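Design request, tokens follow.
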């Protein structure tokens, strides 16, 4: 183990479906760790399993990474493309005496397992070819097996789990190259990590046992073992392993639901990692603070309330132009109609008063209705209730007073207060029909903000339409 080399981390997803939220968090941890140390972060698509790997699943991973802003160095590497190199290493292990050709047939192995099960003895397969004289080798198909140590222990020094010990007598001689010449996952991962110069392997703790077997390959090849950091998996709010019944497990589902990427990054960073009591932080801070010491050993539980809360804070803290840009990407991802030029202009003027208390983009869009719609404004059912004849009369008396005044909150405030007082109503009673006339909705920014964003002519026109 050494960390003297410049840091190089990776995410190595298998493209067999959508991008899981756990994969996204693992990618994020690796990205933060590398980016905070001037290191490199690489992407390797583990597409060795040809039957289960699909180009669509690879695309979903790339889209998920891009949405979360997790940029990788160089091209994404295809594991399958390295298959000749994997085979070469398997043969090198043979040449070093660290592996052997095993001619046992599937039927023989199956028969052994069945007998062992019946006799209740160990089903761990011990190949008779391990120490066979090559002169006795038949001219038949073979697999290459690792000549794994059968006594003693393999010790993993894990940055999260601490020292973890595996008994060697419980591990079999794993296959590294199949009889068709294709590598197994266990070999491919080690060869690729070595060739890519990976210094730190940060991944789910479902791979902890693999680390023991992989360590044997590193040792057999005389390669430097990376720093291991096996992180606890994400659990649902009820403490059970995360599954669809808890809610969305796919990264893209979160994008389609309208969570902002910065909030998602913040939340996923906190999911299993901590920096004192800090909950809300920027990605820049996360890069600076992220370390392996802050990763907890207990499984992290998904907490949708906390996610929404952080997302709301990130929306409120976002730069208006950046937020508008992200909102347009959200519309596209959610399959909603794009903004036209007028809507974009008015949204960019309105953004300052939409950001508060919006947890997701749909909340923001709901509040933005007044800026997105055009005349005639059709009030929804709840808003229509505030436009009775009395209210319409009051709005009618207000309209002429809005002509020929300077269009600032300072000027408008006394006018609205006076009109409310003259009609014997509180300001709230005046605001409701105003919201209905200007936005057609009940949940809107303040009436002043709407009037200022819409401008004098449009405000007067909407009030006239409603009265
Ligand atoms: N391809 C493996 C997975 O998707 C990850 C392997 C690794 O990180 O070493 O679970």
């Amino acid at each position: 183990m050494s960390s003297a080399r410049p840091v190089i981390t990776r995410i190595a997803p298998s493209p067999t479906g959508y991008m899981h939220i756990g994969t996204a968090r693992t990618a994020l941890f690796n990205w933060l760790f590398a980016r905070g140390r001037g290191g490199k972060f690489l992407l390797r698509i583990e597409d060795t399993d040809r039957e289960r790997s699909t180009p669509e699943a690879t695309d979903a991973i790339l889209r998920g990474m891009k949405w979360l802003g997790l940029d990788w160095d160089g091209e994404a590497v295809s594991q399958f493309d390295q298959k000749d190199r994997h085979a070469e290493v398997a043969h090198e292990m043979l040449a070093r005496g660290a592996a052997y050709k095993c001619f046992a047939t599937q039927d023989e192995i199956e028969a052994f397992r069945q007998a062992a099960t019946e006799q209740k003895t160990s089903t761990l397969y011990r190949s008779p070819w391990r120490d066979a004289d090559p002169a006795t080798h038949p001219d038949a198909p073979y697999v290459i097996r690792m000549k794994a140590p059968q006594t003693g222990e393999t010790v993993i020094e894990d940055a999260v789990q601490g020292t973890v010990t595996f008994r060697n007598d419980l591990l079999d001689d794993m296959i590294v190259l199949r009889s068709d010449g294709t590598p197994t996952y266990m070999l491919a991962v080690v060869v690729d990590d070595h060739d890519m110069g990976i210094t730190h392997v940060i991944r789910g703790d479902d791979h902890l046992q693999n680390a023991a077997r992989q360590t044997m390959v590193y040792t057999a090849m005389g390669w430097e073992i990376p720093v291991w950091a096996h992180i606890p998996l994400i659990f649902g709010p009820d403490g059970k392993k995360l599954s669809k019944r808890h809610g969305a497990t796919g990264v893209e589902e979160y994008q389609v639901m309208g969570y902002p990427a910065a909030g998602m990054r913040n939340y996923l960073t906190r999911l299993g990692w901590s920096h004192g009591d800090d909950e809300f932080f920027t990605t820049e801070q996360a890069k600076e603070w992220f370390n392996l010491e802050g990763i907890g050993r207990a499984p992290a539980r998904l907490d949708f309330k906390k996610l929404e809360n952080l997302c709301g804070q990130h929306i409120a803290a976002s730069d208006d132009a950046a937020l508008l840009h992200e909102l347009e990407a959200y519309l596209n991802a959610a399959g909603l109609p794009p903004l036209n030029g007028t809507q974009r202009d008015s949204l960019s003027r309105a953004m300052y008063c939409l950001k508060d208390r919006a947890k997701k983009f749909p909340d923001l869009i709901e509040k933005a209705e007044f800026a997105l719609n055009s005349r005639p404004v059709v009030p929804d059912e709840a808003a229509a209730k505030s436009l009775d004849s009395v209210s319409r009369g009051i709005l009618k008396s207000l309209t002429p007073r809005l002509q020929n005044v300077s269009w600032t909150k300072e000027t408008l405030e006394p006018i609205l207060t006076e009109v409310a007082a003259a009609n014997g109503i509180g300001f709230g009673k005046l605001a409701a029909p105003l919201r209905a006339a200007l936005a057609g909705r009940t949940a809107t920014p303040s009436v002043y903000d709407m009037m200022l964003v819409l401008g004098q002519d449009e405000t007067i026109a909407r009030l006239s339409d409603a009265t």
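Comment from the thread starter after seeing the answer: thanks! The chain has a mean pLDDT of 96.
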